[in-house]
Structures are given as structure tokens and as C-alpha cells.
Amino acid sequence: MSDDPLGDLISAARRRKTPQADSSPDNEPKGLNPLDLLDMPLEQRDVINWLSRRPEARLSEIQAGVQQEPQQVQAIVETLKKAGYIHEALINGEILYRVVFKAKLGRLSRGLPQDIWSRFDVDNAAFLRQVSLFRGMTEEEISAIATKMETRTYQRNEVLLWQGEIGERLLLIKSGIVGISRISPKTHEQETLAYLREGEMLGEYSLLAEQNRTIAATATALSEVTVLAMNRQEFIDLLENHRSAAIQLSKILVERLLNASVRLASSQDTKIALVFGVQSGVGETTIGSALAMTLADTTQRLSVYTEYIDARNLSALFGFPADQETYRHPGGFDLWVYREMLSMPPNVRVTLFMDQLLTNYANIVIGMPWQIDPATHYILERADQIVIVVNPTSTSWRELDRLLDQLRKAMHPEKTTLFIVGNCPHAEHAALPMPGHIDFIIPHLPDLPPAALRTPDNLPEPLAKVAAVLSDRLGRNNQISVYIPTTVDVDQVIDTSRYVQQTMAFLGERFGGATSSQAQGVWNSEESGLVSETVYIVRSYTTQTDLDKFLPDVMEYMAELKQALKQEAMAVEVNQKLILV
Questions:
Q1: Tens digit of each residue's pLDDT (9 = 90 or more) over 80-108
Q2: For 33-45, what is each residue's pLDDT tens digit?
């Protein structure tokens, strides 16, 4: 083997080289090409030669390896970084450098089922049409912007933006997941602040500022990440020339502020479930109070059931004095009647109502009116779960469609999960069929104890099971799915069932449970043509807190799984966003 493999590569490239203009487009992904080495100064080539033989290295190691002056090596590394030949990586708090070789992987080399790959394999213009910043622009305007944007690809652990550097560009995440972190002034360690995914942007704050344009946090690739980059002047021109983009950016920034306020208000990890009956008498109070009881029993945290706007009927139903505001039910949860609300304006009433609940309880279940008014939106924005209760009657199903239409306009599907419960409170309902688009069915329960006497021990099994599932899923609104193939080397079938079990155990330990299912995929191989493959999907549901805590572990596990299964790429899905590892 030669002592200078890159030198051999240069010689071969020089023999093939013919004088021609560089026709590569401006948005061609950067990286090292053998032809780039032909005109590279010797000292730069020495750094590339030494570093290319290693996965990555510290700056001090590069300085020692090439035996040049430290300041000179640092300047060379900075030059190679700007040229896109070297990338920085942040691994375990250390800055490491690696050589980036130019290569474009397409569908043929990925080895992923076509229905998965098609969600990544979109051109830049098609991607921009899905980004809210460009909503309202014409096809021609979007295509013109797409041709100006530079495509950049980052490998796992590589840094996109550094805390403290001057912001020079806007980055739109086309695929992958990016961790946002800051160095703690107390511990001097990286603290993760957030994760950004496909369709989200970073760097915009520093571009909008006139003076203080330093990046506030470090952005690191947690998977392979592809971004579209736009420099500062292009970004300013976009906002000045396209009014719709400026309006959309304002909406994005305002929504971030509002979401931050909501997260701050719910920093004590309070869970909120709303139970809607599509009409009176469908059993929403029975199911809502059973859910509050189950939450109190399983979490051992203060839990409450109440009704908005008027909960005065609860005293007669549950057997406590009519003038009592709070009553501890034998089932271990509180019943709360807020009597001061009715005389107040709706907007004041709803904010005071929620403030009282958030101050006193960890688990909140609210029976809601089936007619939604503007004030109700305040509660909907804070809900983790919505449960709709229906009966198997034609009137009930018509009202369900109306209620669903109203709720979908007001709720945030990325934050709130919605379940439909078919309930049979009366004996005549038992013989009526339930439509298929519901999540749970509770049959008629002739042995249901009176509301005042119910406990976790005497709830009928069908009601107890539904309450247990709803309780388990409350707050676990984030979905993570791992796709496990059953072939290696294009079309060699292998038994990956043990990896499915291993993945279920891995996710279960961190997120409280996992399930698996099978799907059939077809993809195109250059060597073997169409290849049909069974794909296992291991899925888990988790809270935002646990997702933020364990997402780096998941990405590390996926990298290990990719090596074990000898795959060129693996797919993981987080909240309907596919990520390649």
C-alpha cells in the first residue's frame, strides 16, 4: 500500500484530466474531489492526506501529525473548512475535524423501500412549496429562489452553526434532525435546548439583527442532515420583494414566542385531557371521571375532574353538598366546581378557570360543552388529549362530524392527540352497530356502580381498560418509529426478528413501551431490479420531555443498528418526519 494514497489518486486524476470549464451548479453539495487536489497547495494537501486516514481528529492531533506550526495548521484548517473539504463535529463536548468526500447517494444506492425513499427524494422547488415561509408565492417565484439556494449535507455530529459566530446564512432543513444547544455558563457543558426537523429553519434571528448578529446557540446534526442555504442579502431581498414571505416569517416568530409561553406555563408537567360529548347524555361525565380516577391511581399525583362552563350538576351526581367547591371522591380524585365563573365575561372566565386548575393539579380532566365558543380555544390550545364520546345513533354521528370539523380547525395535531369513544349508556344502544372510525367501544354496563361509589377496584372492565389506555397515552403525544429491514446486500433475506425485539426493549426502557408491525416495501436496485422486502416498524409514544432527553440515544442506537445490519442507511420517523441515519 502506498504511503501517500491521495498522491496516487492525484496522479490518476491528472492522467484523466482534460481542460474544460467547471459546469457544476452553484448548489452542488460540497466535498473533496480528487481533481480539487491538483491545484491545492502542498501544506493543505499534507493536512488532507493525514486527516483522510482517520475518522476524525482534534486540532492538536492534526498539528502534531503534520509537524507544522500550530498557527499555520489552524489557518489551513480554516481555509479547508470554508472550501467545504473539512467539517467540524461536536462529539462528547470536543471539537473534531474530518475530511468530507464529494458523493451523492441516490435511490439506487440507498437500499430503502421506494415509499420511504420517495419522502426524501424531492427536488428543492417541491420542498420549498411545503415550507410555510414560501406560502403564497407563485411556482415561478419558488423555482427562481430554489435555483439560488445552496444544498449542503452534514454527517452525524457535524456542526452547522456555532454559538458565538457571526450569522451569515439562513438554513432550511430539507431532511434530518438538528440539535440546538448552548454552553452552560455554570458547568461549561453543552445543554440541549431544542430539536429542529424537516421544514424548520435556523439562523434567521442573526440575519434580521442590524448589529448583534452572533449566533445564540450551536446547531449540530444528529443524523445525516441536508439543508438549503441562503446568504443574508438573499434573505433580506426575499423579505423586501415578497410581502407574503415577510408575513409568514412574522407568524412563525410569533408562534415560537407563544409556544415558549405555553411551555413556561406548563413547566410543572401538568397533563390536560378534554372530554367532549357530542350531545347531552352520551356518558362524557362517566368516562371523564373514570379517566381522572385512573390518573390519580396510576400516577399518584393530584388529579381533578370538572366541567366547563358549569359544573354545578356534579354535586348531585356524586353526592356532595351543593355549596362545596372541592370534593375528594372515594376513588382518589377531586371534583371541582368553580362557582364564581358564571358572572364573568367569557374571556376572563376561561383564563381564571385554567389558572386555578394549573396552580393546584398535575392531572386535569375537563368535561367540555359540545358547542365550541371562541373562549374554548384558550383551553384547546393547552390540551394534551381530546376524547370525543358518541352513541351508536344517527343523530350522534351527525353531531360527531360537526364537532370534528370545529376541533380540527382549533387544535394543534402535533401537540394534541384525539380519540373517539363509542359508548352505550342505555340498554337499547347495545344492539346498534358502531361505525368503524372510532378508537374504543364501551358496551352497555348494567353493573356500573353509582357515580358516588366508584373506585379503581369496582370499575367494570371495559370502562377500566379504556380509561387505562387514555391515561397511559395522556401527554405521550410524540411518536417515534424505527424501520428495520429484512434484507442485506440488496436482496439477501435475513431474519431480523431479534433486532426487532432488541429495538422494542430499547424504546420500551426509555419511553415506557413499544409495539411492532410489518409493512411491505418495494425499491429499485441497479443490480437486481425491483426488490420486494418486508419492513418491521417498531413504534413508541412518548412525552416531549422524554423525547428531548432520549433522542440523542435513539440516533446513536440507529447508527449502531445500521452497522449491525450492514445497511447503507436506516430510517427513523419522529412525529411524521422521516430521518435518514
A1: 988 888 888 777 677 889 887 765 444 44
A2: 767 777 788 899 8
CB within 8 A of 72, min separation 6: which ones?
43
The answer to whether residues 135 and 249 belong to one domain is: yes
pLDDT of residue 261: 56
Q: Same domain for 301 and 444?
A: yes
- Cα 325 from Cα 373, distance rounded (Å): 25
How would residue 557 be classed by pLDDT, with cut points 50, 70 and 90?
A: very high
The predicted pLDDT at position 190 comes to: 76
165 is in which domain, residue-wise?
Answer: 107-262
Whether 182 and 163 have beta carbons less than 8 Å apart is answered as yes
3-state DSSP of 65-80: HHCCCHHHHHHHHHHH
Q: Which of 473, 495, 524 is the last residue of a domain?
A: 473
CB 387: neighbour CB atoms within 10 A?
Answer: 26
User: Which has the minimum average pLDDT: 297-301, 320-324, 325-329, 491-495?
Assistant: 491-495
Pairing outcome for strands 529-542 and 515-525: antiparallel
SS (H, E, C) 355-405: HHHHHHCCEEEEEECCCCCCCHHHHHCCCCEEEEEECCCHHHHHHHHHHHH
What separation in angstroms does the CA of 452 have from each of 216, 271, 303, 370? Answer: 55, 24, 16, 25
Task: Give the C-alpha separation, 352 to 541, whole Å.
Answer: 32
Instruction: Note the helical H segments in 385-455.
Output: 394-410
What is the per-residue pLDDT across 102-128, written as a single tens digit (0 to 9) for each? 654 444 444 555 566 566 667 888 889
Domain identity same for 483 and 553: yes
Which of 16-30, 31-45, 379-393 is least confident?
Answer: 16-30
Q: Are residues 407 and 360 in the same domain?
A: yes
Q: Specify the number of domains making up the chain.
A: 4
CA distance 272 to 378: 13
Do 315 and 428 share a structural domain? yes
Q: Is residue 434 a contact partner of residue 441, using CB atoms and an 8 Å limit?
A: yes
Whether residues 119 and 60 fall in one domain = no
Place of cell 371522591: 329
Residues 100 and 562: beta-carbon distance below 8 Å: no
pLDDT, tens digit (0-9, with 9 covering 90-100), for 370-385: 888 888 888 998 899 9
User: Count of CB atoms within 10 A of residue 466's CB?
Assistant: 23
Distance CA 423, CA 25 (A): 61
Q: Where are the alpha helices (DSSP H) in 394-538?
A: 394-410, 461-473, 497-511
pLDDT at 188: 67
| Chosen domain end from 451, 473, 495 | 473
Name the percent of the chain lying above pLDDT 90: 38
Q: Are residues 424 and 497 in the same domain?
A: no
